[in-house]
Amino acid sequence: MVRLSSSICAFLGALWLALAPGAALADRVRDLGAFQGVRTNQLTGYGVVVGLPGTGDDNLEYLTQAMRGVSGRLGVQLPPGVSPGLKNAAAVLITADLPAFAKPGQRIDVTVSTIGKAKSLRGGALILAPLYGADGQIYAMAQGNLAVGGLGVSAKDGSSVNINIPTVGRIAEGASVERAVATGFDSSETLRWNLFNADFMTAARVRDAINARFPGTASVDDGMTLALKLAAGSNARATMMAAI
To answer: Are residues 47 and 129 in contact, defined by beta-carbon separation less than 8 angstroms?
Structure first.
């Protein structure tokens, strides 16, 4: 009898839990959006990879011009009208992501991709090349030996086998940051915080949550953006941003 009563109580308890309204769920503010300007920036550049085992671009005009520029910087002047065979070199595009708050002297990874007829970048080394931001300013300098995950093999009968992509390589920490991106973090009177997805209800709730912790700090600009009046000084602002 006691066992039967215990079973009934357990059944009623489970039924109550199943029918009771679910507990309210709350999202963290940092999961709903991010501060405007605190983001990565894309960098691009043009360069030359040398040291290839005959898998380069050969006599493509733009590669020849690039090699003339490289040799000129090193004090070697090619005679006019000379078109050197460059099967050991390839013209490449260089891309990288510059993290927020990156400072001069820090290192970032770069990706190197061929833009001509080069068959493989395996064994190559990138000659020093500048990386530009969208504003045309130089933000980093790239150089180093490439790590290529692909492999390409061709035979005299015209057959070939490619594993992955041998015309794209990567240089870990291959670029040195030369210029920091201004974010206005410590100088702007008002910082803006953007939702990942526009919604007036969510914006209003985030405003109320921030003002409950820091009264009078947040106001809604629109369904995407909140304006935050933070304390002056980078130390105080960092503490408030971390709390938000």
So the answer is: yes
